[in-house]
Amino acid sequence: MVEVHDGDTLTVFRGSEAVRVRLYGVDCPEKAQEGGPEATAFVEGLALGRDVSVGPVTRDRYGRTVALVEVGGRLLNQELVASGHAWVYRRYCKDFDLCRRLVKLEEEARDRTTGLWAGVDPVPPWEYRHGRKFASASIASAPSMRGSCRCDVDLDCGDFSSWQEAQRCFEECLRITGRDVHRLDRDGNGRACEGLR
Q1: For position 145, what pLDDT does the model report?
Q2: Whole-angstrom distance, CA of residue 90 vs CA of residue 123
């Protein structure tokens, strides 16, 4: 039996024992955050009333078992990212092969604008939890941003005069937010706006 607390946290019951499980490598929007209820409903749809297999990876500071959870032959961690209901939690995702696969699935979900990626500027839950909610703005309503870097404004490669400028902005926003907010590195190779080279 499984109890779903939110998109990335469940309680798995083994007989009379209850094990609190945090899904490894992913971070879903918080319950009160946009996309949070949808992530919870997605996990409930896959896991409630079903047998799950838990592959422990570690324990977190709250004593939860951080794990890979399989249900019906599908890896729940992976399904959340592929469906656009979770970010890859890059800070804690250390399994090279799995995390690389999750990052690819996240990029594909973004490209399809599915789940939370259908929103204008989805706020990662680690920013939401710490009160760093970046304001959304569009280029159309913003003053000309050419030559400047802002992580809270929608920019693309056409807003930079050189690939070096785009690369600086890409690296700065990645450092601040933990993600490629402007999607300047489409192929995930760490180089922004290669068409400007």
Answers
A1: 37
A2: 15
Do 12 and 21 form a contact (C-beta atoms < 8 A)? yes
Q: Cβ(142)–Cβ(133) under 8 Å?
A: no
- Give tens-digit pLDDT for 146-189: 446 888 777 888 777 788 888 888 888 888 888 888 888 877 78
- The torsion angles phi and psi of 187, rounded to 5 degrees, stand at -95, 5
* 3-class state of residue 127 by DSSP: helix
Which of 42, 50, 34, 55 shows the shortest CA–CA distance to 8?
Answer: 42
Domains of the chain (ranges, CATH numbers): 2-118 (2.40.50.90), 134-196 (no CATH)
CA distances from 154 to 25, 104, 135, 182, 187 (A): 27, 22, 10, 6, 19
Judged by average pLDDT, the poorest of 11-20, 59-68, 119-128, 144-153 is 144-153
What end-to-end distance do the CA atoms of the chain give, in Å? Answer: 55
Task: Record the pTM.
Answer: 0.67
- Apex 137 CA angle, 186 and 140, nearest 5: 85
